[in-house]
Amino acid sequence: MAQDIAKHLERARRNLEKNKLREAVAEYQAIFDESPSNQEAIQALADLYLRLSDPVSAAYFYGLQFDRLLETGDAAKASAIYARFLRGVEQPPERLLRYATALQKQNRIAEAVEQFDVTAERLQEMHRDSEALECYERISQLDSENPSRHLNIGELAAKVGQVDLAARSFLRAGQLSQGMATIDVALDYFNRAHALLPKDRTIALFFAEARLRKGDAAGAVELLEPYSPTDNDTTFLALFGEALLRVGELDRARGAFEAFYRQRQDSFAKLFELAGAYLRADQDDKAVEVLNQAKEWMRIAGRENEFAAQSDRMTTVFPNSIALAQLVATLYEELNREAKYFDALVRLFDLYLEAEQVKPACDVLDRLVDIDPYDYRNQERIKRLEGKADPAFLRNILSRAAKAATIPTRHEGFGGASNERAAPLTEDVRQQQALEDLLVQVEIFLQYSLHTKAVERLERIADMFPNEEEKNERLRSVYERANWWPKGKPVKAAPKSESAPSVTPDAGTTAPSLFAPAALNLGFNAETQRDLAEIAEFTRIMYRQATPRDVVSAAVKEIGKFLNASRCIVSVSMGKQNAPLMAEFTGPGVFPAGGAQISAVLALLSAASPDALGGIELAGPGMAAVRDLKLEVALGVRLVDKETQTPAGSLLIGSERQRAWRPNESFFLQAVGDQLLISVNHTRTQAVVRSLAFADEKTGLVSRGAYLDCLLAESSRARAQGCPLSLVILQIDRGKDLLNQHGDAALEKYIEQLARSLRGAVRQTDLAVKYTAWSLAFILPDTGLASAKILAEKLCQVAATVEAPWEAHDLNVSAIVAEATVRQSDDNEDRVTEWINRAEVGLEDVRQQGGGKLLVLATP
To answer: Quick check: 586 and 614 in contact, CB under 8 A?
Structure first.
């Protein structure tokens, strides 16, 4: 046989040389008939039939060649033969499947999916549905995020009776469609899955969630009801509670939410939403029970401030609820926040009187007088109780009120039964009484050195009685005693102290401000006052820097220029594990020093003893390190961390000429050094806020959970440094409707795009917060109301250029701008709480106006 094959091969080759193609085909065919595995014959026959324009026969032999190459593991060459010679000719499904598998192994996913799809269709035409189903499963593995792939599996699996596979495929198709914001399509897929497996919990959960997003809360409850007696999983409880809340079954929703929060106490927003629903349904007692439970859980979690802020917001939304007002008053009493407690009692007193509950109103008035007997509004409250309350009680309250002297004598007493009533007070008399009451309070505060509270009352007088000091000698005297005058009024000279030298300011010297009364009393000269002003300016410059290195570089440059130094060096410790931050300023003609020279002079500074003001002079013999820096004299201070009282760095200035250092320069270096450390710590904290757990994982913004902490920290820093602090909240109009229409994924994607665009429009020192699912907040340090408004306008303009991932023709944004109050009498928590509440009220006003607004809120 081998000899016959050899003879056929010889004759076939001679025929090819003579271009006798058909004779060559006959010889190769004879070889193939005798030896079907002969590769030379197979390859030659395929090529010859192609040359003879017989594609069907050529395809047959190319197919054999393709199969042989796959068996030997040469998938690349086999795929090339198929693509070139076999693609246009109908192939058996087995060969199509092998080709698709070869493409998959070569990571040619798109081509593999196409071939599996063709194979599945061919198998279905041949009624081989089970094999076609396997092809569709292979496709779903390669193109797993395409819902149509899972839909094909579901439909075919249902046809062949594989119910479980069909239901899971419909479920996956629904999940993917829901993520693409096609909620109606997703509902159809979930419905088909539920019809196949009506008792499957997972399918029911996804189906219920989709119905809830569509607004069919009753349908969601119907799906979840069978699992409610026994299912205590947090996912189920959250979904079931939300559905019950929307259909108005508040008591059952309460049970679900309480069971949820007993397991996961990460956010308590739904309890506040439930309480609001109870209040709208006039079930105030149940609302308070829910809030008390939330208060206990949040107290254990250390989130009392967040609970207080939420409670304040609810009192704004439900101002007529007595039960809610009682809860808020009790809360602030427990938190020992006197100012907020007083305001809550005032609100409660008004509500009791409106409801004609005289006894509780009297109890509240009694507590109000205990807290602040000098409040000028006490007399008005007493008057409102006349004829309703016990006269003996009113007499007792009146005797305890510090403003009783300003009340006209009541010859008829508080009998309340007499028909003869005292003549009503005119508005002018009432205004005069109010002024007298406030003056009494200011004089008492000044007598007991409560300057901050005195100034707060004076600010109120200036607002209520503008220009009154021009005609009221007593008020003018009080202004002088407090060393305070209304804005826009010339500051009068403070009384001279016998122990302090007289100060005569230069013609161009600005009068000392309220924030530096010590400078006036101690007789500081114009240079010292100029230094104080520069310290404030340097602080603002350092505060604007983005990194600790930027802070140090800016500080050394500004200090060196201001003090006209030849060289200025700053070193700040960054912890034991990190090298200290160093920066150097050099004057004209002075070359920068090397690291060894700087280290030597700083070591000399660390070993020396400071004077009374903290300054250390380096000059004279034995100071070789100073001379190495080409300096004749140097003055330095050691920086100390105020919290740990540990060394934190050094600050040194030097002159290449002889120079006598003044005491105010030591004071200046020490003060600027303290602010330098604060600014460095601030920028390090900012970096932590942006990069660690405070950041929202998708947008990179500060998360809502850290919002309150950031406000408290920035407010405290702004008060300490005397800088303004503003807040801008940017919200997408109709955000909740958009969420329901397009789904979480689409809105989240839009917010991510919006956040990326807006980050370039704010400073690095500003904090951007993901406020809600459809709004962003920007905390703006060292920014007044006017500057914040300009930034808000810019943010709105940038936001208008961001396209939504859905068809959006009427997508608008609104913004509110609010500046933190500057009343020194408020504690930091009260200040931030008022700020948050004012911003929330502003957002509600924008919503009621229809959106598309920029609202600048007045600062109280």
So the answer is: no
Single out the residue of 662, 586, 656, 671 nearest to residue 617, CA to CA.
Answer: 662
CA 528 and chain centroid, separation: 42
Contact status, residue 765 vs residue 545, Cβ threshold 8 Å: yes
> Which stretches of 660-818 are DSSP H helices?
663-691, 707-721, 735-759, 785-800
- CA distances to 731, 735, 756, 795, 806 from 798, rounded to whole Å, are 13, 18, 11, 5, 19
Bridge pairing between strands 813-819 and 725-732 = antiparallel
For residue 102, give both structure tokens: 């070869």
Predicted confidence at residue 654, as pLDDT, reads 92
User: Which amino acid is located at 473 in the chain?
Assistant: E
Residues 6+ apart with CB under 8 A from 384: 353
Instruction: Take residue 506 and report the two structure tokens written for it.
Output: 């230069």
Copy the structure tokens of residue 726: 């503003």
Contact 823, 831 (CB under 8 A): yes
Task: Give the neighbor-by-neighbor strand order of the sheet with 581-586.
Answer: 581-586, 567-572, 647-655, 633-640, 615-618
Residue 357 vs residues 320, 344, 380, 619: alpha-carbon distances, Å: 14, 17, 17, 80
Q: Is 575 left (phi over 0), alpha (psi -120 to 50) or beta?
A: left
| CB atoms inside a 10 Å sphere around CB 315 | 19
Beta bridge partners of 855: 816
pLDDT at 728: 93
Under a CB-based contact definition with an 8 Å cutoff, are residues 277 and 250 in contact? yes
Q: Is 271 exposed, middle or buried (0-12, 13-18, 19+ CB in 10 A)?
A: buried
Amino acid at 551: V
Question: Within 13 Å and on the Cβ side, how many CA atoms surround 583?
Answer: 18
pLDDT digits (tens, 9 = 90+) for 590-646: 888 888 888 888 888 888 888 766 788 888 767 888 888 888 899 999 988 876 778
Q: Averaged in consecutive runs of 10 residues, what is the pLDDT profile of the chain (860 residues)? A: 70 78 79 77 78 79 79 78 74 82 84 86 86 88 87 88 90 86 86 90 90 90 89 89 92 91 84 92 93 89 87 90 92 82 89 91 87 75 87 80 42 42 56 76 68 78 85 85 77 43 37 34 51 74 79 90 91 82 88 84 85 79 81 90 81 89 81 85 69 56 75 81 86 81 79 80 78 86 87 86 76 88 75 86 84 85
Q: How many CA atoms lie within 13 A of 692 on its CB side?
A: 7
Cα separation, 774 vs 317, whole angstroms? 20
Hey, how many other C-beta atoms are within 10 angstroms of the C-beta on 456? 17
Q: Tens digit of pLDDT for each residue in 671-687?
A: 888 888 888 887 777 66
- Which residues, 6 or more positions from 645, have their beta carbon under 8 angstroms from its beta carbon? none
Residue type, 742: H
Q: What is the DSSP string of 250-267?
A: HHHHHHHHHHHHHH--S-
In whole angstroms, give the CA distance from residue 458 to residue 445: 11
CA distances from 2 to 9, 26, 31 (A): 11, 18, 10
Query: How far apart are alpha carbons 450 and 537 in whole angstroms?
Result: 29
| Rg of the chain, C-alpha, whole Å | 41
Burial 47-69 (b: 16+ CB within 10 A, else e): bbbbeeeeeebbbbbbbbbbeeb
Instruction: Please state the φ and ψ torsions of residue 546, each to the nearest 5 degrees.
Output: -90, -30
Is residue 836 a contact partner of residue 313, using CB atoms and an 8 Å limit? yes
Distance between CA atoms of residues 146 and 152, nearest Å: 11
Residue 585 β-bridge partners: 568
Look at residue 498 in the predicted model and tell me its pLDDT.
38
Residue 758 near residue 799 (C-beta atoms within 8 A): yes
Q: Distance between CA atoms of 196 and 188, rounded to whole angstroms?
A: 13
Q: Which residues pair with 732 in a beta bridge?
A: 813
End-to-end CA distance of the chain, in Å? 110
As a dihedral over the C-alpha atoms of residue 801, residue 802, residue 804, residue 808, rounded to 10 degrees, the angle is: -10
- What is the C-alpha separation between 677 and 481, in angstroms, rounded? 36
